[in-house]
């Protein structure tokens, strides 16, 4: 897995893998032709990347069992979603502002409460292959709207000078091999130092009980390639079933747009 992650990173840094997150662009749509400096590799299970270990891990029994336990859902309800990798930029530091992945910063407290109430049908995780201290979160903020002070700190499109200025913030420290599972609408931000190596698998899985609630957040990443037979053929039976549930959600929703602005 580590070797495959290094290979994918090298390919992305040299411009040989076009699906990437470039410095200067915080959220989808990622400008694939933007800065040559990259902070993320997109679509780790894409057959053209040629690294089968990622799909094997994403559909592995141990991982899916954990996801089922956290969501309180059955294996037959799991929906395939995103699998990307977050890496350190090489030329300049970069950061993401405080945000919830699928709730706009301008949302009122009532809108936040409503959006958070229906966001229990998915789980996201960061699995660090190297040590990782990039992520900051406000624990419990996935259960309640922002306080007025937290709102002030998260209503700008600019990343914070110091993430610890956010009331309630903690820094998430992962040792190599550790994974943190979280609700992607928890209030969070991240800072990337170009001199500190990062190789962190970043993925999520949904539960079909959520219907189309997760459609915008997931489909905004551009997942047409997942409907290609070539991808389906690489998956084990569980993976094929998870993929079918994603395709159904895609077919059940129209144009989804984007969650946040750059
Ligand atoms: O770098 C991270 O760990 C967080 C990334 C993130 O928040 C995002 O991609 O929306
Ligand atoms: Fe995020």
From TrEMBL:
<feature type="region of interest" description="Disordered">
    <location>
        <begin position="142"/>
        <end position="164"/>
    </location>
</feature>
<protein>
    <recommendedName>
        <fullName>Phytanoyl-CoA dioxygenase</fullName>
    </recommendedName>
</protein>
<dbReference type="Pfam" id="PF05721">
    <property type="entry name" value="PhyH"/>
</dbReference>
<dbReference type="InterPro" id="IPR008775">
    <property type="entry name" value="Phytyl_CoA_dOase-like"/>
</dbReference>
